TrEMBL record:
GO terms for molecular function: transmembrane transporter activity. This is MFS transporter. InterPro entries: MFS, MFS_trans_sf. It is found in: Cell membrane. GO terms for cellular component: plasma membrane. The chain crosses the membrane at residues 21-45, 51-71, 245-267, 279-299, 311-331, 337-358, 370-389, 395-413. It comes from Nocardiopsis kunsanensis. It is a multi-pass membrane protein. Keywords: Cell membrane, Membrane, Transmembrane, Transmembrane helix.
Amino acid sequence: MSTESPSRKRRAPLGRDFNRFWAGSLSSNLADGIMLLALPMLAAALTNDPVLVSGLMVARFLPWLLVGLFAGALADRLDRGRVLVVANLVRAGALVVLAALVTAGMATIWTLYAVMFVVMVCEVFYDVAGRAILPALAPHALDRANSRLVGGKTVTEDFAGAPLAGFLFVVAAALPIAVNAGAYFLGALVLLGLPLAVRRPDAGARPATEHEGPSDADEGEDRPSIMADIRAGLRYLLGHPTLRSVLLFNVVLNLASVAQGGVLVLIVQEHFGVPEAFYGVFLMSVAAGALVGAMLAGTAVERLGRFRTELVCFSLMTASYFAFGLAPGAVTAALAFGTLAVASTVSNIVMIGAIQLVVPGTHLGRVMSLVQITGAGLAPVGALLGGLLGRVELYYVPIASGVAVLAAFLPTIPAIRRLTRHADDVERGTVDTT
């Protein structure tokens, strides 16, 4: 029997089913990019009240707290392909209604809140089901599949969707919203072609072992309620020491990122002296870094392995936070910020891929929803912490973020080693149950 590691094997093709899923995701990502620029621009046209305009952000993140666990439980019960299609169709319908209201001059800021909320509720279901279906679509190439999804998302949202929305908005306020709806509808049509074999919650599922933690088998064959599924998912995650440690580390990573992001515009403009007109240019370093990270992730895993790739990335993230905070000028700061985006993207792709390999398919929707909830749900807390520290000194915020990441990373190294090695074992077909 060959002892060649999976990282050295010939690259397996991603296949027709993944390519269909990717095409549908690209259309949905383009719609996301258009919406996330068009709705704030429309809000600014309807009111100049900063509080009312910022309310769109509340409508954007609130659905994760309200329906995230519910979406995860349903993704582990229902046909995941159908969840993706329905989510896109509902989003398209909501935006068609908004486009009609804008054209008729009847749209209000409260209409935008309602539409943003509905679209983001659908986004919660779409993201959770999409993450959960991926192992069945690309069981032997998860790192490359995740890399391609992240790269495509970056290109369509940041480099295509946002500029397209700005151009269309100048022509007519309702035009980007109508195009937005069309892109969601197209994504739904493409995803209709996913075969039933990859859409079921148990598609590609691996049995839970002692090493992985308790399984739904412990709950019996019957599932009396969604709440029972949610409780089972929480017990699974909290009863899995490795996943629990990694999840807590993820909380710190998100808090550090949001703390810096909440005052980023002030750091860039006031601390580094970047003119307002060039703020968007500065932010291009993030999009470019994310795209580079998506391109590098698969190669990094092949050459370094999952564990060493994560060690390099988290060390680089810490250094980048410090470099950004202590940068002597805007150019150096942009380089540090872009490097942070590269490291963050690679580490996220590798970590998500490892979780998708380790967690049984029947639990994956709930686990993925919890990972997302800990990020989106604590975003206001991180933003508040960053704002309070920024009142003292703006450049303290990225330095504090770097300290937090380093302090959380060092004790989590053993858990990251266990998770990545277990993922390697699953991928190799020799699951370690000790």
